[in-house]
Design brief:
single chain, mainly alpha, two-stranded antiparallel sheet, 4 strands, globular
Length: 152
Amino acid sequence: LQEQSVRALEDPAKMFEYGSLLATEIKKAGAKILIYATWPMSDRLDSLGQLNSAFQNFASKVDAVIVPAGNCWAQASKKNRSLKLYNDLIHPTQAGTYLAASAFYAVLTGTSPVGLPETLFDNDNVPFIKLSRKNALELQQIAWETVSTRSA
């Protein structure tokens, strides 16, 4: 489940209301609930803690697993300030998308994304994400460190 970028901060009651309805349907289908814990808007970086609290409260209520994409972004920003993760105030660049996808991979498989390809292709074999091997490896490592630290 992914909420609109600021609703977790501005209207958590609505997030809980509609997220709970979706969680009920997911449980009926026998699937696992994942919460896509996103990053804050680039002009509100100090709100990551509040976002994480809202996502954690919701995850506890519906028995969900958190994909800590926002925490991955925070770690990436600390480790390498030259990484450009934001395309605008909220949307990710290819590197930001790749980092979030690496976090999903780590959570879903329970294994490290380190070593995955740096170029991702669509169904027509056209590359839609193409990073340098160095940047891909750095993002993979950050995702794995962030996810595995939370699981420990």
